[in-house]
Design a protein that fits this description.
Elements: H1 2-18, H2 22-28, H3 33-53, H4 58-83, H5 93-102, H6 110-117, H7 127-148, H8 151-158, H9 165-168, H10 181-198, H11 200-212, H12 216-239, H13 245-266, H14 273-305, H15 311-342, H16 348-360, H17 365-380, E1 385-390, E2 396-401, E3 408-415, E4 418-426, H18 436-505, H19 510-538, H20 541-545, H21 547-559, E5 565-571, H22 579-600, E6 604-612, E7 617-624, H23 637-648, E8 652-657, E9 663-670
Parallel strand pairs: 5-6
Antiparallel strand pairs: 1-2, 1-4, 3-4, 6-7, 7-9, 8-9
Helix pairs in contact: 1-3, 1-4, 3-4, 3-13, 4-5, 4-6, 6-11, 7-10, 7-11, 8-10, 11-12, 12-13, 12-14, 14-15, 16-17, 16-18, 17-18, 18-19, 21-22, 22-23
């Protein structure tokens, strides 16, 4: 309804404006009312958009009401000018004067109301609510005083010129309160002084909200900031133009502000407000600098050259000077303002080179992740960045820059086609809307940092692996020495002693010698079993006897529990596998089957061995139909050993839930070219807990 009133009022005001003589309008100093009607339509339309999304939003209702009011004020202005062009004035002239000149003053309430209610339609709480109500009361003083004060005194107080003659002919004085002129003069002066003071509280409230809100509310406040910047630029620009441009400037400011407020409430992510704000500031500053520079050049040329140059020649010199300096200033100002508003992403080379330089100075993988987080935060002006990397052991390393919001969005970090982690960003922050160029820059940053971090991390893991290999070799040597020295050594000595005893005893009693040799034979049998155990620890003999698939089947048969069926499937040619790959695949399968027997409560377990000759890898997959992994399950020694065995060969191993139920262990082991055998660390125990 209110929007319809505003829309109807606009053509009415425009048609009436066309019938008003320009000379008469100049006498009245009235701008065409059609501009006010257009401003009212824009305001009402913005209110309607807000109400369509939020039907009870107070600010939507206020904008709709003020929009209709503003449009009717424009109609009153147009009719006042048209009616007073006749002598005597046409009917309704006095009413139009009251509506436009007096009631129209109430439109000043719109600005503080928007500032106090934006964006959620609620006044601030606590003491600021009292201050806000007091501010609105002070703003209302001037409209109320203008409604009740005599027109002559109101005109004399607000302007230096007296009331125009066509308006003095109207019978208006009977409508005002009969108070002494001195009283009305004092009241109007106080009301005019209170008007700017009343706007202090709304501006302070806006600043407080801007500093305290985050996420989407921060984006909404930046739309209001953009509207303020645009209004300032528009009003300053039209201030330099002839007087009749004032109405155009006011209308443009109202239209842009209405649109900005509606977008900020309904769709703050419609466009990148940071880019919009940065561009507005840049071109506004350039416009001001260009104007000042133009004046300086013209003034200097006039003072230095004096009468030797005419106005046109001085203007040409000014234009050339402005054009030359403008080209330099624009680029530098653009970079400064854009860096302040949206960060360094407008200069990708600067961002990439800076990251590369900082990564070169960092030798620790965790510190490199911190560097990446800080670089992304600075480049994209985001309040939070998290970098999450999954290590070979399965542990997740997380480094953060800023305070983590309630909701985040994750971007994958990949290295050579493998997802090694995630980049965490605020889900609905004001500066998260990225263009295609921003996305490419972010991808390049992640790729470079991922490569550097992976290289450093691999170097660290290589060093740890080397230390582990040396330690494992020494431990294995110590174990073998201990078992040979403490086990086989005394046993062999005992056998040798029994043989000597048997030789001595044989001279007097063959039966005793035979008994002693029998005991020696039993001890030798035990030593052979011990030797087999030691050999099996170094490399399962079944791998050489029956091959990888047969060895896993034998191990599955030994470990199988009642009610569990274990199937081993072979896909591809598994002959010619390096010894280290065979041992790692055997250990991983044995460990996984042991976990199925102990924890899974499964009825079936399938072990699949797939060799990809072209890809140069062996895939080991163990899937069961048991209870699966709990969400809060923590990787135990067994699962960690699976990953470590795969990592020793440069492969990977993951343990996930299977569909529809159960657990899936998947390992990929690279099969190196012939003649290159990976180093294998000391074997671990089979059957560790998860």
């Amino acid at each position: 309804m209110l929007f319809a009133i505003a829309v109807t009022a606009t053509p009415v005001a425009a048609l009436v404006d066309l019938r008003v003589p320009q000379a008469h309008r100049a006498v009245l100093e009235l701008q065409p009312g059609g501009f006010d009607a257009i401003a009212g339509v824009a305001l009402a339309a913005a209110g309607m958009v807000v109400l369509r999304r939020y039907p009870r939003h107070p600010l939507g209702r206020l904008m709709s009401a003020f929009g209709a009011w503003w449009a009717l004020d424009g109609v009153a202005s147009s009719w006042l000018a048209y009616a007073t062009a006749h002598d005597p004035a046409l009917p309704g002239a006095s009413a139009a004067f009251i509506v436009y000149q007096r009631l129209g003053a109430g439109l000043v309430l719109l600005l503080p109301l928007v500032l106090l209610l934006y964006p959620d339609g609620k006044l601030p709480s606590g003491r600021w609510r009292v201050a806000s109500l007091l501010s609105l009361a002070l703003t209302s003083l001037l409209p109320l005083a203008l409604v009740a004060a005599p027109s002559a005194i109101a005109q004399a107080t607000s302007a230096s010129t007296p009331l125009p003659a066509p308006l003095r002919r109207l019978n208006l004085e009977a409508l005002y309160l009969p108070l002494p002129d001195a009283v009305w003069t004092g009241v109007l002066l106080v009301a005019q002084l209170c008007l700017p003071l009343s706007l202090v509280t709304p501006f302070v409230v806006v600043v407080r909200r801007y500093r305290t809100v985050t996420g989407v509310d921060r984006a909404r406040m930046r739309w209001l900031l953009w509207a303020a910047v645009v209004d300032l630029l528009v009003m300053l620009t039209f201030r330099l133009l002839p007087n009749w441009f004032g109405a155009v400037g006011l209308t443009a400011a109202v239209v842009l502000t209405s649109a900005s407020v509606a977008i900020g409430i309904v769709r703050p992510d419609l466009v990148d407000v940071d880019r919009l704000l940065g561009g507005t500031l840049v071109y506004g500053l350039l416009l001001a600098l260009t104007f000042v520079l133009d004046l300086l050049v013209l003034g200097s040329a006039g003072r230095l050259l004096g009468p030797r140059l005419n106005e046109g020649e001085r203007l040409v010199i000014a234009v050339f000077a402005v054009a030359i300096l403008y080209a330099q200033l624009r680029h530098r100002l653009w970079r400064l303002v854009r860096r302040w508003i949206v960060g360094d992403r407008d200069d990708p080379y600067h961002v990439m080179s800076g990251l590369a330089e900082r990564l070169e100075r960092t030798d620790d993988s965790e510190a490199q992740l911190v560097t990446l987080a800080k670089t992304v935060a600075r480049a994209f002006r985001t309040p939070y960045v998290g970098v999450e990397i999954t290590q070979v052991s399965g542990e997740v390393l997380l480094v953060e820059d800023g305070e983590r919001p309630a909701e985040t969005q994750a971007l994958p970090i990949t290295y050579r086609g493998e997802i090694i982690g995630r980049l965490l960003l605020p889900r609905r922050a004001a500066r998260r809307r990225l263009t295609s160029n921003d996305e490419r820059l972010l991808a390049d940053l992640i790729r470079q940092a991922a490569a550097a971090s992976r290289a450093v991390r691999l170097a660290e893991e290589l060093q740890r692996s080397r230390e582990g290999i040396v330690s494992a070799v020494e431990d294995e040597r110590r174990r073998l020495r201990r078992e040979l020295h403490d086990g086989l050594g005394p046993a062999l000595a005992a056998v040798a002693s029994r043989i000597d005893t048997a030789r001595i005893t044989a001279r007097r009693s063959n039966e005793d010698a035979d008994r002693i040799l029998g005991l020696a034979r039993q001890e030798l049998t035990g030593m052979l079993a011990e030797v087999r155990r030691l050999v099996h620890g170094l490399r399962p003999p079944a791998l050489d006897d029956v091959g990888l698939v047969g060895a896993i089947r034998q191990q599955a048969e030994r470990l199988r529990a009642p009610g569990l069926t274990v199937r081993v499937e072979e896909r591809g040619d598994l002959t010619g596998l390096p010894a280290a790959v065979e041992v790692a695949a055997y250990r991983i399968a044995s460990e996984a089957i042991t976990n199925v027997v102990r924890h899974a409560q499964a009825g079936e377990c399938v072990v699949s061995l797939t060799r990809d000759v072209e890809g140069g890898h062996l895939d080991v997959e163990i899937v069961d139909d048991g209870v699966g992994l709990a969400a809060e399950a923590v990787a135990g020694v067994g699962l960690v050993s699976l990953r470590e065995r795969a990592a020793e060969l440069g492969g990977s191993c993951t343990v996930t839930s299977a569909e529809p139920a159960g657990t899936r262990v998947w390992a990929r082991l690279p099969v190196t070219p012939s003649g290159r055998t990976p180093v294998l660390t000391a074997p671990g125990k089979v059957g560790d807990d998860r």
